[in-house]
Amino acid sequence: MRIGTWNLEGKWSSGHLALLQSQECDVWLLTEVPTAASIPGMVAHRTGEPMGPKKTWAGIFSKVNVITGPDPHRATAVAHCDGVRLMSSVLPWRSCGTSWEGSTLAEKISGTLASLREHIDEATVWGGDWNQALEGHDYVGGLAGRREIVDLVHDAHLSVPTRALGSASKGHRSIDHIAVPINWDVVGAHRVRAANEGHRLSDHDAYVVTVD
After folding, report:
1. CA–CA dist 129, 203 (Å, integer)
2. Predicted TM-score of the model (pTM)
């Protein structure tokens, strides 16, 4: 099974579709998903609240039918398939503004995770743009948020194969992640450069985790 995540940055073109299809994922946990986005052969569930005029916060695209929602947070999409809960989330970042509850970034992350915690367990695949490096220096998150996320995935018995991967920012670890049940056999995890003919498709690279 191949699981991917990518922040599309609200953009869509034939190049975006080609990159998604080239990875042959069974599930995509996408963020900043343009309303025009569609992947042939996959069903989609998106967050109900828009992130902007032509994009939603998150979406789940799957090759098999899923049971959707309810979504626990405006920036998290949830679907269920064969006893597995799929979640795609955008988490707060340093400059995210006042639309997130809390006066500090740590409070905003803590409040968001509080709404998600009861939905994340050992039968969950959780991914998306967490806006948080889980090791090394962090440019958009903070150490308090890192600790909360690490504690949450630990308590839920999940592993995060993407934590050590690089990003589009040289020398910076990924802030886009995929967490899977710790008892799943992770065959591989890799970063996909989000570019087409030398032009960036998004300011985020894509990530794919293969599990057995």
Report:
1. 12
2. 0.96
Write down how long the chain is: 212
Joined together, the tokens standing for residue 127 give: 């991914």
Decide: 117 and 73 in contact? Cβ < 8 Å: no
In sequence order, what are the residues at sequence separation of 6 or more whose Cβ sits closer than 8 angstroms to the Cβ of residue 82?
A: 64
| Whole-number Å distance between alpha carbons of 35 and 13 | 12
Buried-state track 95-131, b at ≥16 Cβ within 10 A, e below 16: ebeeebeeeebbebbbebbeebeebbeeebbbbbbbb
Contact 52, 27 (CB under 8 A): no
User: Do residues 15 and 196 make contact, with C-beta atoms less than 8 angstroms apart?
Assistant: yes
Contact between 130 and 179 under an 8 Å Cβ cutoff? The reply is no
Q: What is the pLDDT of residues 61-87, one digit of tens each?
A: 999 999 997 999 999 999 999 999 999
CA distance linking residue 112 with residue 109, whole number of Å: 5
- Residue 198 CA, chain-centre distance (Å), reads 25
Helix boundaries (H) for 141-182: 143-155
Separation of alpha carbons 199 and 80, rounded Å = 35
Angle at 195 between CA 64 and CA 36, to 5 degrees: 45
In this structure, the strands spanning 124-129 and 84-90 are parallel
Residue pLDDT, tens place only, 165-198: 999 998 899 999 999 999 999 999 999 999 988 8
